[in-house]
Amino acid sequence: xxxxxTGLYLRxxxxxxxxRSMTTNLISKAIISAAxxxxxxxxxxxxxxxxxxxxxxxxxxxxxxxxxxxxxxxxGCWVNKVVKRFFGSVKHDWILKIAQTTREHMKQYxxxxxxYFNQERLHxxxxxxxxxxxxxxxxxxxxxxxxxxILKNSS
Length: 155
Prior knowledge:
It is a single chain. The protein has 155 residues and is of the alpha+beta class. The protein has 6 helices and 4 strands; from the N terminus they run ββαβααβααα. The radius of gyration is 18 Å and the shape is globular.
């Protein structure tokens, strides 16, 4: 099983974890992975109604990171469409095309696919830019605005 945490602003996978079973531990490790990458305080974690997402242990973990939980309605297929799209891409690009050998091979592929997804894959929601290029673009725009402000203040 693979659990991912997606940053919707950039359409980027910010945390993930894989294990043999779908448990609270699996999704907790994905949240911790995301928290190690970025600040999650005041974030919203949208999920389905599985017992692993509604457990007291998981709720306590989210609250510890300052994350608000939002659980979708039963049968609400559009709630997690970005995550479902990611899993659809993984299945289309990998499961249907590459022989499944070992769990270790699967983890290596998932790592490589997430790197591709975050750094190279073009996203229509990002004006057909990859999440990495969009971050760089926004960072450069911020730097230019700061320099313009400094120049205006110095004259």
